[in-house]
Design goal:
The structure holds two protein chains of two kinds. Chain A is α/β, with parallel strands linked by helices. In chain A, about 40% of the residues lie in helices and about 15% in strands. The relative contact order of chain A is 0.15. Chain B has a seven-stranded mixed sheet, with helices on both faces. In chain B, a hairpin with a 6-residue loop joins β6 and β7. The chains are: A alpha/beta, B alpha/beta. At the A-B interface, α6 of A face loops of B.
Chain lengths: ~300, ~230
């Protein structure tokens, strides 16, 4: 058995999740809408590169029920270098524009860099969504100083923007738990508020398809820690490789993975297709009995 | 003097069932089977599998790869796993029906050339006159979609390796710069330097059975026959 880092238990109830001024009870399933400020992300590259198009997308996803707007300026895959200055240039004006348009919407910034995080918080971000597993240890400190939240993810110790090469795990879920709980523990130590910390297994980051499927299969073990679990499965390669489907044909597979993660206890779902994900999550909540149906008349008239 | 050698790549996708419902790279699998088959049909007294790993050392001959570390849905063997290169070498020998003596020799990924060559010379001086199954890959940085992305220097280094093997100039492999090889994710470097130390004849006869990078990682399959 691996030792538990910093005495954090692996069994604890889920609690309220605070982001910005909002407080989300454990039974709320949240959609985090992806809005990439890049010309070359993997799904529909460049679709929101133009700032007007990006803001239009924000209007659309808010109308479709997004709870969080996730703004990123650097693609996850390898490619032309995007340094911190360029990343800031791509994201800061846009964060400001979104905050101006929507004073209460939760804004997260998809970055691993503390200097980007610091500026994002000044511009109005509520959450630092670090998919690269704490590669820059100062990011958590920035979150603490700004009073915002942080996502503690498992990226298999890969440097940012690198791909897994023959990555192997004795037990991938065990490693995910060790890494994310360590990061959560450190976030607490440097002063991030406990209600503003999430964990994310980061499907496909430092993991192959088999590993990502295993993480999904055993997602209940992550939820059992008590930390709110964020998952980002939308259009990912593990979906594509399971179905032999290209990027533009992965919606059904994405929704299946989303449903399983929701049923097993995940609470935040990072998605391209907000409307469909919102429908899936509302359905899961109703099946659970957490919410009533919207409008039931059949058989009751 | 070793009696013969086969060079094979060591991607996890070679392991049966690893890639799921579709078999992948059938030409590569066939070339590995051919190269290993020729090695086994030579009826050597012993086959030594030489492959890169974290550290230099030998493994018990009955050891096998635990595929569950790459594919959690596959059953774990429950025993300590061989390093990937040795595990795939053992698998290839099993698939070729080899039931003779085998040794499993890991060579540390960062071992200097001199260490590799010396180890090769020891293997070559063995009483049993072994055949070698040498595992390892050329660069994993060959394309934009490669695991190591694209490094423009990779094609030239891969070409130099292929050329050395094709012409039987295995001594040229001793000149491979370990630092550049590491930067270009060339896992085979130490294993080929072991091979070059084990071959003491002038210009062995060689045949390249496969040389391609379908997924951005360069795989090389070859047979080496000392004169």
């Amino acid at each position: 058995m691996s030792p538990e880092p910093a005495g954090l238990p692996r069994q604890a109830p889920q609690r309220v999740l605070r982001l910005g001024s909002r407080a989300f009870e454990p039974d709320r399933l949240l959609v985090m809408a992806i809005v990439n400020r890049t010309p070359d992300s993997f799904y529909r590259p460049g679709v929101t590169w133009d700032p007007a198009a990006a803001l239009e997308r924000v209007h659309q996803v808010v109308a479709e029920g997004a709870d969080i707007i996730d703004i990123g300026g650097v693609p996850a895959r390898p490619g032309d270098d995007v340094d911190a200055a360029e990343e800031i240039r791509r994201t800061m004006p846009f964060i400001t524009a979104v905050r101006d348009a929507y004073p209460d919407v939760v804004i997260s910034v998809d970055t691993w860099r503390h200097e980007v995080g610091r500026q994002a918080c000044a511009a109005g971000a509520d959450l630092l969504n670090d998919t690269w597993g704490g590669w820059d240890p100062r990011l958590a400190e920035v979150a603490a100083q700004a009073g915002v939240g942080v996502v503690c993810s498992h990226a298999g110790r890969l440097p940012p923007r690198t791909r897994p090469f023959r990555v192997a795990y004795r037990d991938v879920v065990d490693d995910v738990l060790n890494v994310t709980l360590s990061l959560a523990s450190r976030a607490l130590e440097v002063g991030v508020e406990p209600d503003r910390i999430l964990i994310d297994p980061a499907h496909d980051f430092g993991k192959n398809t088999g590993h990502s499927l295993e993480v999904t299969r055993r997602l209940a073990e992550l939820a059992a820690t008590g930390w709110p679990v964020l998952v980002s499965v939308s259009n990912k390669d593990f979906v594509g490789e399971t179905l032999d489907a290209p990027v533009e044909d992965r919606l059904a597979g994405t929704l299946a993975a989303t449903t399983v993660c929701a049923w097993l206890g995940a609470r935040v779902f990072r998605a391209h297709h907000v409307r469909e994900n919102r429908h899936v999550l509302t359905m899961v909540s109703a099946i659970r009995g957490d919410i009533p149906p919207a409008r039931a008349i059949r058989g009751l008239a | 003097m070793i009696t013969s050698a086969a060079l094979c790549p060591s991607p996890p996708l070679l392991y049966p069932g690893m890639t799921g419902r579709q078999a992948v790279a059938p030409e590569l699998r066939a070339a590995c089977a051919e190269a290993t088959g020729r090695l086994v049909r030579g009826e050597p007294e012993e086959i030594v599998v030489v492959g890169p790993a974290g550290t230099t050392g030998t493994w018990a001959p009955a050891s096998r790869l635990d595929p569950s570390q790459f594919a959690p849905a596959m059953a774990s063997t429950g025993t300590p796993s061989l390093p990937l290169s040795l595990g795939l070498g053992a698998m290839l020998l099993d698939e070729a029906g080899y039931r003779g003596r085998r040794r499993l020799q890991a060579i540390g990924q960062d071992e200097p050339a001199s260490t590799c060559i010396r180890l090769g010379a020891q293997l070559g001086a063995a009483e049993t006159k072994p055949a070698l199954l040498v595992m390892g890959d050329v660069s994993a940085r060959r394309t934009l979609k490669a695991p190591g992305y694209l490094d423009p220097r990779a094609a030239a280094l891969d070409s130099a390796v292929e050329s050395a093997i094709r012409t039987g100039d295995l001594d040229a492999l001793q000149q491979l710069d370990p630092i550049l090889a590491r930067e270009l994710m060339v896992t085979g470097r130490p294993a080929w330097q072991v091979l070059s130390g084990a071959i003491r004849s002038s210009r062995p006869k060689t045949e390249i059975l496969y040389c391609d990078a379908p997924f951005g990682v360069a795989y090389l399959v070859a047979q080496v026959q000392p004169a």
